Amino acid sequence: MLRYFPQAKGAYAHNKRDYLIAGFTFLCVAICLVSDANASMEKQNALGVCGWTFLIGLLLGENKEVRMQVAIAVIFATIGEHFASPFMGGYTYRFQNVPAYVPPGHGMVYLTAVSLARSGLFLNYAREIATAVVLVCGAWSIWGISGYAEQGDAVGALLFCVFLVYLFKGRSPMVYLAAFFITTWLELIGTAVGTWKWAAIDPVLGLPQGNPPSGVAAWYCLVDAVAIGGAAPVLRSLKNAGEYFKSGKSRESAYEGAANE
Fold first, then answer.
1. Residue 238 pLDDT
2. Spans in the chain with pLDDT lower than 50
3. CB atoms < 10 A from the CB of 156, how many?
4. Which helix (DSSP H) or strand (DSSP E) does residue 90 occupy?
5. Which pTM value belongs to this model?
6. Alpha-carbon distance 117 to 87, whole Å?
7. Are 10 and 167 in contact, with CB atoms under 8 Å apart?
8. Residues 6+ apart with CB under 8 A from 71
9. pLDDT recorded at residue 2
């Protein structure tokens, strides 16, 4: 299964920008979630403004494909957040809302997954990192259904299986692999400080789930897959629309010139 990952130790160069994006996002996630643990709604909104500012700043150095992927990830994830949290109650934020920093946060999380996936560290040691992730997440999932965990996690075990499908059959395995690290980081911090809490029983499946579920990275992989798959068609549509309007203006100018003659 590891053939889906590159085996090229030392063949890929290290881009400092990739590590800067990842390090900055990991730090921002920790500060934001800890700050929101006892924050007012006004502070949540201020964190949202900071999030958008940081995301836009990070995107200035990216190409249009990555920018479009981030835009799609933000839109899709935000819709999913409103459906899964306030509507379904799969997990609940402190104010029973979707905090203002969550949409730009999803953008930063996705960009971090992309940055790590293309980094020299991940490309040079992809197979070793993938092996470690599968073993760690697998052990976590087994613990959740072993009966020893304080809160059962059958949902986490199912999500772990889905995560494996993304990892070994998905179109962008390196992005999904990198997503595990940033998403596990934010989920462990967010639930530990009480910024949000997962329901003990999943409202859809009716199965026990952990806080957070062990395979929670699978949900973020879905966001990544939609972003990666949707960017190219959207860009093509925008390009075609632009060419259509340009050709329309050219025809209009030609008609006006002929009429004047």
1. 87
2. none
3. 31
4. none
5. 0.92
6. 33
7. no
8. 107
9. 78
Total Cβ atoms within 10 A of residue 13: 9
From CA 66, how far away is CA 47, in angstroms rounded? Answer: 24
Q: Where are the beta strands (DSSP E) in the chain?
A: 91-93, 196-198
Q: What is the DSSP string of 3-57?
A: GGS---TTTSPPPHHHHHHHHHHHHHHHHHHHHHTT--HHHHHHHHHHHHHHHHH
Q: Where are the domains of the chain?
A: 2-233
Give the model's pLDDT for residue 172: 92
Provide the pLDDT for residue 3.
Answer: 79
pLDDT of residue 6: 85
Peptide bond into 104 cis (omega under 30): no
Q: Give residue 256's pLDDT.
A: 59
> How far apart (Å, rounded) are the C-alpha atoms in residues 86 and 196?
12
For residues 36 and 13, what is the distance between their CA atoms, to the nearest angstrom?
37
Q: What is the pLDDT of residues 211-221, one digit of tens each?
A: 999 999 999 99
Residues 6+ apart with CB under 8 A from 24: 54, 58
**Cα gap 12→26, rounded to integer Å:** 23
pLDDT tens-digit readout, 57-81: 999 999 999 999 999 999 999 999 9
pLDDT of 56 reads 97
Q: Which has the closest alpha carbon to 108: 60, 58, 69, 61?
A: 58
CA nearest neighbour of 190 among 80, 27, 45, 29: 29
Residue 4 CA: distances (Å) to CA of 10, 26, 165, 169:
18, 27, 12, 8
Report how far residue 146's alpha carbon sits from residue 159's, in angstroms, rounded to the nearest whole number. 16
CA distances from 247 to 15, 224, 243, 258, 260 (A): 41, 35, 6, 16, 20
Q: Provide the residue type at 88 as one letter.
A: M
